[in-house]
Amino acid sequence: MQLNGSEIILQCLLEQKVDTIFGYPGGAVLNIYDALYKCPQLRHVLVAHEQGAAHAADGYARSTGRVGVCLATSGPGATNLVTGLATAYMDSSPVVAITGNVTSAQLGLDSFQEVDITGVTMPVTKHNFLVRRVEDLAGIIRTAFTIANTGRKGPVLIDVPKDITAAVCEYTPVSPEPVPEPPMPDQGWYLKAVEMVREAKRPFIYAGGGVISAGAAEELSAFAKKVDAPVSCSLMCQGGFDQADPRYVGMLGMHGTKTASCCIRDCDLLIAVGTRFSDRVTCDTGTFGRNCRILQIDIDPAEFNKNVRVDIRLKGNARAILAALNKSIPQLRHAEWMGQVGAWQPEYPLAQPAPAEGAVTPKAVMEALYAIGGEDMILSTEVGQHQMWAAEYFTFRRPRQFITSGGLGTMGFGLGAAIGAQLGNPDRLVVNVAGDGSFYMNMNELSTAAKYNIPVVELLMNNGVLGMVRQWQNLFYGKRYSQTTLEKKTDFQKLAEGFGIRYFEINTAEEIAPVLQAAVGCKEPALVNCRINQDLNVLPMVPGGSSVEQPLLEM
Amino acid sequence: MEKDILVKVTARNNPGLLQRVCALFSRRFFNIVSIVAAQSQDPAVSHIFIVVRGDERISRQVEKQLDKLYDVLEVAILDPSRAVKREHLMVKVGRTEESGSKLIEIANAFHAAVLHAGPETMILELSGDSRTLDSFAELLQPFGIREMLRTGAMAMTI
To answer: Which long-range contacts (CB under 8 A, 24 or more apart) does A489-493 make?
Structure first.
């Protein structure tokens, strides 16, 4: 059938089973929005700012496992997506961004709202396209979805000049082909890996976001039992292993637990699954894993020996490889080692004493939130102290429960992501834990939550300071709190009312549970202003340049 | 140990290909010594030859990171002992009545071509590996090099 470019874009999205897109109109995408007007099968969510659209598409993708889609106009609309795309890129999240551009004849002439967005986004996308002919459009969109959602996942941008969105050509619907399974690793390496796991006396499993991306959580759980080993998860893998399982020893790295750091110090084999050994995890790479051999499983061969030297590498899909290993490896037992790990756990608990009698601690807030929302809820975060507290003190039970910007560390990510997650998971409770610094970055999206009555709870851990930076200033800069004290005059109650959302306040420890319960129970978008002490720190902490084996337990 | 690594990239000849490859090198802090983009028999496919300075780790990273680019079809790190390598040099050198015959002599010794002979200058051309080109340029130095152009390396495996 004959369709114009705009209709082809929408038809191709429907081919991919897209139900929701996040976007913002503008001159270069007028034709697309006109086609959207006549396409009720696609729900379009009008955000306040294109950055919010990119984060929402990302949050949708992370929470559902399906590709998230955002749409923006040319020039500033497109550049506003860039932080969101970079965030998705660093965390390997499948997002397809469609941007309009000026007409083909106006390209390159510094036309109004023209920007070379394919040039701009090259370093922060897996791939991008500038569509030159309407006949290429459908093929490009299908390829973009395949690129975004295969191998190591990531964002793809498609830039469409305005004349292409109006030009007409023949369109034939095509159902997406099933994604082929990536090949299994080299047999020689595989057999060596099996041997290495069997020989290990003190194995330690360290899982990253690839476990969630590959849908390998069940296989990981079975693998941990089979190998009889403790498990640590990176920030990106929170929920990839059930944290209520006694094998779980907490995070590893800069804000990892002392138990995890003892495990990396004393293990003789580190089995790293779907992780890229971020500097936040390895800390000083010279001492990381110095006493053990390392077996790395990853879909991206460029991650082998990039940050850390590994002994055995298995390239492929984490789920398929773990499933195969579970068949190849007999039931192992490491009673002495597991006994040692079990002894560290109570010796080094994650504690957070209240700064004063009856004062609110983030730990108590996260525990109360878990008591209410449990394993069904989705928790997203902004970036900073509150993010680490959420990761440390909330008990994540299942994959895709925790949505956070790990690699890029994007303040302002969480609220948009929470909106995307809520729309992708209408029956789940979604709470965005925010610090007040991050809150100010993209709070405009509260208007989006209000407009569509998206019942996300914005849980503001309000300490009036940029806590994480302040913590570093406290430790390394002689308490010179340069520009980290916010001292804003905002009345959060009026702000919530102004946006048309509910407002709640937590000032004391005893208010935590009932107020959270009320905020969750109202089933409307809500702001919970939870006041906390500005001198609370994130602990344990490995200062920059130090060994992961020596975290500070107090400051 | 740092050395010059010759990388051959075979890629779809899409718009922006060279930009993608260069953006990757810039983003990953790989040092490009030279780069040559060359057409293949198939106009839809082009070859890019890049000389990178780095150690073994850089070599592996260059190969694997390039391989992740969607347009890239194949990446090969060429083993110098198993490839014929060629660079191209054009040089404009000062010429006097006395020096003219000497210049021709040097050019003949290197099998270089004389592209232009004017009253005051001469333009010579030579293809070869980088060491040959270096010594050719060195021998011409005393005559006064007015202008010199050099491409990066292309190579074919044996």
So the answer is: A492/A460, A492/A462, A492/A527, A492/A529, A493/A529
Contact between residue B125 and residue B140 where contact means Cβ atoms under 8 Å apart: no
Within 8 A of B68 by CB-CB distance, chain A residues are 126, 152, 300, 302
Chain A residue at shortest CA distance from B65: A302
Q: What pLDDT is stored for residue A179 in this prediction?
A: 83
Cβ neighbours, 10 Å, residue A494: 10
pLDDT value at residue B38 = 84
Q: pLDDT digit string (tens) for A483-528?
A: 999 989 999 999 999 999 999 999 999 999 999 999 999 999 999 9
Q: Do B64 and A122 touch (CB under 8 A)?
A: no
Q: Computed over its alpha carbons, how large is the radius of gyration of chain A?
A: 24
Could you say which of A126, A153, A162, A226 is catalytic? Answer: A162
Q: Which CATH architecture has domain A2-170?
A: 3-Layer(aba) Sandwich (3.40)
Which residue in chain B has the smallest CA separation from A120? B23
Tell me, yes or no, if A123 comes closer than 8 A to chain B by beta carbon: yes
**How many degrees, rounded to 5, is the angle at CA B75 between CA B72 and CA B77?**
155
Hey, are the CB atoms on B61 and A302 less than 8 Å from each other? yes
User: How far B71 CA lies from chain A's nearest CA (Å)?
Assistant: 9
A258 with A348: CB under 8 angstroms? yes
Q: Helix, strand, or coil here: B141?
A: helix
Burial code (b: 16+ CB inside 10 Å, e: under 16) for A93-129 equals bbbbbbbbbbebebbeeebebbbbbbebbbbbbbbbb
The model carries a pTM of: 0.95
Q: What share of chain B is helix, strand, coil (3-state, %, to 5)?
A: 35, 45, 20
A90-to-A155, A208, A298, A490 alpha-carbon distances in Å: 10, 13, 15, 33
The dihedral region occupied by A174, where left means phi > 0, alpha psi between -120 and 50, and beta the remainder, is beta
- B90 CB-contact burial (10 Å; exposed 0-12 / middle 13-18 / buried 19+): middle
Q: How many CB atoms lie within 10 A of CB A188?
A: 8
What is the C-alpha separation between A71 and B30, in angstroms, rounded? Answer: 34
CA B57, distance to chain mean position in Å, is 23
Chain B: give the shortest CA distance to residue A302, in Å: 5
Task: Map out the domains of chain A as residue ranges.
Answer: 2-170, 187-347, 362-531
Catalytic residue among A468, A473, A492, A504: A468
User: How close is the nearest chain B Cα to the Cα of A105, in Å?
Assistant: 17
Confidence band of B1 (pLDDT split at 50, 70, 90): confident
pLDDT, tens digit, 9 for 90 and up, residues B134-143: 999 999 999 9
Superfamily of domain A362-531: Thiamin diphosphate (ThDP)-binding fold, Pyr/PP domains (3.40.50.970)
- CB-nearest to A123 from B15, B27, B61 is B27
Chain B partners within 8 Å of A304 (Cβ): 64
Instruction: Give yes or no for residue A555 having a pLDDT over 90.
Output: no
Answer CATH for B3-78 from 3.30.1490.100, 3.55.40.20, 3.30.70.260, 3.40.50.300 = 3.30.70.260
Contact A305 B67 (CB under 8 A): no
Q: Do domains A187-347 and A362-531 have the same CATH topology?
A: yes
pLDDT in tens, A411-468: 999 999 999 999 999 999 999 999 999 999 999 999 999 999 999 999 999 999 999 9
Assign domain A187-347 to a CATH class. Answer: alpha beta
Q: A386-397: b or e for each residue (b if 16 or more CB lie within 10 Å)?
A: bbbbbbbbbbbb
CATH 3.55.40.20 fits B84-157, yes or no: no
- A17, A41, A112, A488: the catalytic one is A112
